[in-house]
Amino acid sequence: MSDDKKSELKIKAIENGTVIDHITANKSLHILKILELPNDETKNVTIAMNVSSSEIGRKDILKIENRELDSSELNQIALIAPKATINIIRDFKPVKKDKIILPNEIKSIIKCTNSKCITNNINEPITPKFKVITKNPPQVRCHYCEKLIKTEDIEKQFE
Ligand SMILES: [Zn+2]
């Protein structure tokens, strides 16, 4: 049996919902923060951290019950876990499998690290907007002040 299959068995199967697999090890809590989960409607979230994976060494897995996350929500995850994959589960069976793709432009999830940037103006805050420069590892550039935000600066914002 492959390592992936074994680790899959360690956490219980869900009847309906979303499984996010191949998350960079120890990043699952960052992802829950991005997705703002768990919340009032989505209570049952199972996390498996730092399990072995034949594909990426060590990984995290997230199982979110009774909620099918849409692709725009999921693609934001690529900022933290560029190799993550998604399974939508219905009646215990995966009905849709997808890779997460970081969009060319992202909004609001992270802040510009330039304190003088217009997006950090306390009086007239503007929604941050970034151009994605590299996808793996992810680096983005602020649309307004052109400040480059490196992978480690992105990750710091979710700690
Ligand atoms: Zn900026």
Automatic annotation (TrEMBL):
<dbReference type="InterPro" id="IPR036792">
    <property type="entry name" value="Asp_carbatrfase_reg_C_sf"/>
</dbReference>
<dbReference type="InterPro" id="IPR036793">
    <property type="entry name" value="Asp_carbatrfase_reg_N_sf"/>
</dbReference>
<dbReference type="GO" id="GO:0006221">
    <property type="term" value="P:pyrimidine nucleotide biosynthetic process"/>
</dbReference>
<dbReference type="GO" id="GO:0009347">
    <property type="term" value="C:aspartate carbamoyltransferase complex"/>
</dbReference>
<feature type="binding site">
    <location>
        <position position="145"/>
    </location>
    <ligand>
        <name>Zn(2+)</name>
    </ligand>
</feature>
<feature type="domain" description="Aspartate carbamoyltransferase regulatory subunit N-terminal">
    <location>
        <begin position="9"/>
        <end position="100"/>
    </location>
</feature>
<dbReference type="InterPro" id="IPR020545">
    <property type="entry name" value="Asp_carbamoyltransf_reg_N"/>
</dbReference>
<dbReference type="InterPro" id="IPR020542">
    <property type="entry name" value="Asp_carbamoyltrfase_reg_C"/>
</dbReference>
<feature type="binding site">
    <location>
        <position position="112"/>
    </location>
    <ligand>
        <name>Zn(2+)</name>
    </ligand>
</feature>
<dbReference type="GO" id="GO:0006207">
    <property type="term" value="P:'de novo' pyrimidine nucleobase biosynthetic process"/>
</dbReference>
<comment type="subunit">
    <text>Contains catalytic and regulatory chains.</text>
</comment>
<feature type="binding site">
    <location>
        <position position="142"/>
    </location>
    <ligand>
        <name>Zn(2+)</name>
    </ligand>
</feature>
<dbReference type="GO" id="GO:0046872">
    <property type="term" value="F:metal ion binding"/>
</dbReference>
<dbReference type="InterPro" id="IPR002801">
    <property type="entry name" value="Asp_carbamoylTrfase_reg"/>
</dbReference>
<keyword id="KW-0665">Pyrimidine biosynthesis</keyword>
<dbReference type="Pfam" id="PF02748">
    <property type="entry name" value="PyrI_C"/>
</dbReference>
<feature type="binding site">
    <location>
        <position position="117"/>
    </location>
    <ligand>
        <name>Zn(2+)</name>
    </ligand>
</feature>
<comment type="function">
    <text>Involved in allosteric regulation of aspartate carbamoyltransferase.</text>
</comment>
<protein>
    <recommendedName>
        <fullName>Aspartate carbamoyltransferase regulatory chain</fullName>
    </recommendedName>
</protein>
<dbReference type="GO" id="GO:0016740">
    <property type="term" value="F:transferase activity"/>
</dbReference>
<dbReference type="Pfam" id="PF01948">
    <property type="entry name" value="PyrI"/>
</dbReference>
<feature type="domain" description="Aspartate carbamoyltransferase regulatory subunit C-terminal">
    <location>
        <begin position="105"/>
        <end position="154"/>
    </location>
</feature>
<comment type="similarity">
    <text>Belongs to the PyrI family.</text>
</comment>
<keyword id="KW-0862">Zinc</keyword>
<keyword id="KW-0808">Transferase</keyword>
<keyword id="KW-0479">Metal-binding</keyword>
